[in-house]
Design brief:
Layout lengths: L3 E5 L4 H10 L4 E2 L9 H10 L4 E7 L4 H4 L7 E6 L2 E13 L1 H8 L10 E14 H5 L14 E2 L2 H15 L2
Parallel strand pairs: 1-4
Antiparallel strand pairs: 1-7, 2-3, 3-6, 4-5, 5-6
Length: about 170
């Protein structure tokens, strides 16, 4: 089954800046080839033949969970009381140097060690109330922090997204 996870990406000023650089536009990842393992570069090339992809990431405290993420999993990007966008995971890998160059965080800022490319990125701007109305969700939950949904919640979210996109 496709795993669904929720990741804040539009709430803080830093997150919005990172998003403007790697969610709202694609990144020419071959420009970072010197930092990429050849296997990761080959996988990115296979999934994104144009040499460009959108990227997001997760901090090292989520390493174990991020190791379970595979191509085709779905991520909901949240912030400002909305699911702002959805995407399908392309290729995930652990590479703090790539993340540091890509997002160029300020001194002392915590940064991602886990990075993943995205396919089928789509802005949805769905109010949290639509998610809260699904079975198993709690009204008032503002989806703080990276969160992996269980199978029932994942299925409900995927059904809602399918209905929203007309699939």
């Amino acid at each position: 089954m496709v795993q669904v996870f929720v990741q804040p990406a539009y709430g803080t000023p830093d997150a919005r800046r990172y998003g403007s650089e790697s969610l709202e536009r694609t990144v020419p990842f071959r420009e970072y080839a010197d930092l990429l393992d050849p296997a990761d570069l080959a996988r990115l090339d296979a999934l994104h033949p144009g040499g460009r992809a959108r990227f997001w990431g997760a901090k090292d405290k989520y390493d174990r969970r991020m190791d379970t993420v595979t191509t085709g999993d779905v991520v909901l990007f949240t912030g400002r009381k909305h699911v702002q966008a959805t995407a399908e995971v392309g290729h995930g890998f652990r590479n703090p140097a790539f993340a540091r160059r890509l997002w160029n965080p300020g001194p002392g800022k915590c940064l991602f060690s886990n990075v993943y490319s995205l396919r089928r990125y789509r802005r949805v701007e769905m109010p949290y109330e639509e998610i809260w109305a699904l079975p198993g969700f709690t009204a008032g939950d503002h989806f703080m922090g990276l969160r992996f949904l269980d199978q029932a919640k994942s299925a409900a979210v995927l059904a809602l997204l399918g209905a929203e996109s007309g699939h």
